[in-house]
Amino acid sequence: MMIEENNSDVMNRVMNSFFKVISTRTTPAHAWLTLKKLIGKLTYNYNFLNNIEVIEINDIKEMEYYDTDIKNIVNINSESIDSINRDMIGKAIQSFADEIINYLGEKAGYHLLCEFRYDIGDDYFSIIKSMGVDLHLDILQNNLYGWVTEDISNDKKITKQKEIINEVI
Amino acid sequence: MKKKKVMVVDDNADLIHMIKKMLEKMTDYTVIGVQSGKECFKTLKNGEIPDIMLLDIMMPEMTGWDVLAKLRNEPMWEKIPVIFLTAKDDDASVGLGTLTSEGYVTKPFDISYLKKIVDKFI
Hints:
Chain A is mainly alpha-helical. Chain A has helices spanning 7-23, 28-42, 60-64, 78-82, 86-130, 137-145, 154-168; strands at residues 52-54, 74-76. Chain A is 66% helix and 4% strand.
């Protein structure tokens, strides 16, 4: 059964997960900047993103010591975000993911979105899917590795996953 | 007319020397070299504000990622155009660096190409 979460909770979880997976590729301070940039960029199309503020920090030096498990990288005006149609929230999240692919390319983008998908967990992944978000993981996987999950047996899946992990390592 | 300033932030002194020598020979720009993030901010605080910054990523103590974040968090310096100049050439670094900076150039680089990029922002 799908858990019930309001828009602001979903956005909070999504932003914190993106922060976490970007932090592991650069640094928490740079991930903070990346979120600010992306939210700023997408605000042109999704004005309601103005109600999501990446936390202000006094000294970036603080960020060097931030645990990437930090609970909250954003302050959200819940009342405003919760009043937005869920499909629009989904479109904004979709655009966020699309921008990631656009900048990182298919391969690095795919790996980042895979990590994001695992970080938000099954419940939140189901929720964003119900909002219309499609991370295109199967398509990207197929483009990169020439197979889709549904096409092959479990044994082959495991072998393929090992190949991918070895390649990433 | 006041000469335009290019700041190179890189822990490799030889590279700074090479860029300074070549860019100053090819252009009218003054090249200021600093070897760490700490030295970069000390120079900025002393009022030496460059027209563009060429920023390495892999430096001890403070990475280029953190230098950029700190610059963008300070109203006085947030508008300084920053070009990453780095050996980090994996897709994630190139993509995320391109997203947050004005440019991303990987080492080894062609000095004429670097000049073109610097010219674009000065």
